[in-house]
Amino acid sequence: MDQQLLQVVIALACVASVLVLLLKWTRYQRAQKKILRARERRTASLEQAEQAVHEFKKANPGVDSTNIVSLPLAELTKRIRSGSLQPEAVLHAYIEKALEVNQKLNCGTDVLMESLKQLEDIESHRNGILYGVPVSLKENIGYKGYDSSCGVLCKLNEPALNDSVVVRVLKRQGAVPFIKTNIPQGLLNYECSNPIYGMTVNPHNLQKTCGGSSGGEGALIGGGGSILGLGTDIAGSIRIPASFCGICGFKPTFNRISLHGVNSCVKGIKSVPSSIGPMARDVESLALCMRALLSTDMFSLDPTIPPLPFNQQVYDSTEHLRIGYYDNDGYHQPSPSMSRALQETKKLLEQAGHTLVPFQPPRLFMAIHEYATKGILADGGTTLLQEGPIDPCLQPQAITYSIPRFVKKILSIFLRPIVSSLCTAMCFYSSVTDMWEQHKNIEDYISEVIAEWRRLEMDVLLCPVLGPAYNFYYSGMLTSSLSYTVMYNLLNFPAGVVPVTTVTADDEAQMNRYRGNFADIWDKLFLKAVQDSVGLPVAVQCVSLPWQDELCLRFMREVEKLSVRKKHTNTY
């Protein structure tokens, strides 16, 4: 009898194992079918766009598309408004260029063919600030009839029922959204790859990442396939791709621009807010976009947005500034090119008559671990782990997040302090009271930083931004390198990046002496991540206090002007 029972148990165990395998196989097959359908839709939209461009060029052989896509935004808008360029010609020129760039970089997810229909009504928006300007959109920004998948399978086949508020405002201002761009899986990675659309690469070096999570935007604009785009930023997701791809990017104060209709895998994060902002080739284009968005259209469509129009007077100011600065936050040692970019920019600003004063963010380790990391990973990363098959770029993060809470607690006891506190931060909240306490601590910390800012009588802040662009598959292992960007999401300070130089052979040689602040495994990984970077762009970061977005942009414009002037002087 016992033998028969054992045989039954073994048989049932075998059946259960087979059923589990069948279930996994079925899920895998369903996932592959969803991915295939999404890729087929993308291929179809690319083919339709190619056909539209071919037909337009055949009907309009005299249009010089190359000249159109080389114009700065200010000049482009001037010519469109004067009638010397037609919106139809501009749109087709940028669709053609975007197709070319996408073939090389894999940066687009959908060409928005509705943009051609939008031209039929474009004259009714002739007074719009962005009349006739093609605009690219990060994939998670809602556009009616299209997915905002965030790079995860469970959000495929869920097309937006309406345009997001920001898209509606763009259209009312005469802009023409024409393409959606690629993102990393779940948006919480600063490489740009997902199981659906694959990996996007850097326009300056195909063996480097373009950054993330607004990586498709960075690559498309950096490659010349878009003149203006919108991204989102929760830990540097606009600023890092802008830095890696050699363009300008701006993260406004949270809730300055509406996020209504913008998708996310982890909604409801309050302690480290995400912002939506512009990306472009120059600072003036960022300001023009902000001017267009901060309109009565925005304030009426989303009453939760404070009705604060763009302050042109602050942006146009030429008064000398009192600028705080730091070149090493004590958490992540900058690469030699990051340090040189900061020091050269500091010197240029001083020569221009501005006052530079040293500044150091207080209690940075506490801010990064207990406030920023714990705020973003309040659930221990479990929500992100539920989003289907894991992309290789995300695997290191996924492995870390999947470690049981009690194991992380044990590791926090035995590992060195920096790793210990990071493990503790990823253990998620133990209670609602714990969460409320953290929110209060963050409020106190923001007040502490502002008090130090006021004590030094600073107008703005200059600091490094991560760079140069990484080799593939290092971002998921180097979340510790985000200290320069995530800090200003935590504080809710507007921040933007401006490219000021490129990596030199001397910068590369100095990497041989790079040890980092701790000479630990992460410092050694960073060294490998940025190897072979000669010629890649390097940027600096400009920061201001909350709701002083125009002052931040004004500071960015000053940095850009001085940097460009230096390049011209060196050229001649």
UniProtKB/TrEMBL annotation:
One of its GO terms (biological process) is fatty acid catabolic process. InterPro entries: Amidase_CS (IPR020556), Amidase_dom (IPR023631), AS_sf (IPR036928), Endocannabinoid_amidase (IPR052096). One of its GO terms (molecular function) is amidase activity. Substrate binds at L187, S213, I234, A235, G236, S237. SUPFAM superfamilies: Amidase signature (AS) enzymes. Residues 90-553 form the Amidase domain. Pfam families: Amidase (PF01425). The keyword Lipid metabolism applies. Belongs to the amidase family. This is Fatty-acid amide hydrolase 1. The gene is FAAH.
